[in-house]
Sequence to fold (315 residues):
Amino acid sequence: MQKSKSKSKSEKEEGLTKCPYCGSTAIVRDYQRGSLVCENCGRVLKDDVMDRGPEWRAFSQEQREKRSRGGAPMTYTIHDKGLTTRIDWRNRDAKGKSLSPKRRSQMYRLRKWHRRARISDAMERNLAFALSEMDRMASQLGLPRNVREMASMTYRDAVQKQLIRGRSIEGVVSAAIYAACRECGIPRTLEETAEASRVDKKEIGRSYRFISRELDLHLLPTNPASYVSRFGSELDLSGEAQSEAIELIKKAKEKGLTSGRSPTGIAAAAIYITTVMTGERRTQNDVAKVAKVTEVTVRNRYKELAEELDLETEI
DNA sequence: AAGACGAAAGTGGTTGA
DNA sequence: TCAACAACTTTCGTCTT
Fold:
């Protein structure tokens, strides 16, 4: 009795039981990154939910007091990994009294050197700029925290190996994000990445190929199935239809129909077929629009799939 | 009238010499 | 660096519902 009451209260405190973007109830709390993420569409619903839990296990009250956490968790998305020290700008001591002139000039010098140490060289400045830009893009694309961390680490690697020289920071940032999305299984297309970026698709593609070669990312070609849930929710499809589309893609892959074809095209065709078969019909045009391919491509893929998989397409 | 279909020409990217 | 090539897009006319 008491248990169920406290449970409902904690749910209420979290505030979100349904994704406002796609309506899914599959909301996951990512404790490590401190955010609420919709598993269905991959959007971050609430960021920077502070982790108030203890840092370690504690077995007694005394230990609990000793071991409670202090400070924010470390992150790769800030150029000094969030491990910053700060010197107050007010010329006051700990008790709020004014400092003597001698002390004051000392503090002035300290602050100056502290600032210089923090953003010390070109690389640090580069990182600081790039990571803030990355954060902006990631928000615009609605990416969860883990993808941002992944992208940041990739970018750090690229800087360390001096791959940025002669290339635009923006391009490499976009490429790192594009790669991280694929790595985390919530791919965004090059176009989508380019929309959130200040550089064009071509540049991002070039940078991506370059860093993936130099950093040995060797990512597998995108699985069309990972687009299904996103496109599906944009089209208001039921869960059954979506999983049927994924099944279809699996079969197509076994027959080798997917290689060399654009994953978005395959996903679009599979979705179109299942909408026809399950009666939740969407037009080729609608499907093509959310997948950002043309009707013609949807048609071609759909014809291939229907032929090779011997689907009795009762239209 | 909207959607589906297909042909033909054009485009951007990859590959191999 | 260039040409060949496959995949994809654009465009447009025709057929179906």
User: Anything to note?
Assistant: The beta strands of chain A are 27-30, 35-38, 44-46. Residues 260-262, 265, 293-294, 296-297, 300 of chain A lie near DNA strand C (CB under 10 Å from a C1'). The longest strand of chain A covers residues 27-30. Chain A has a mean pLDDT of 74.
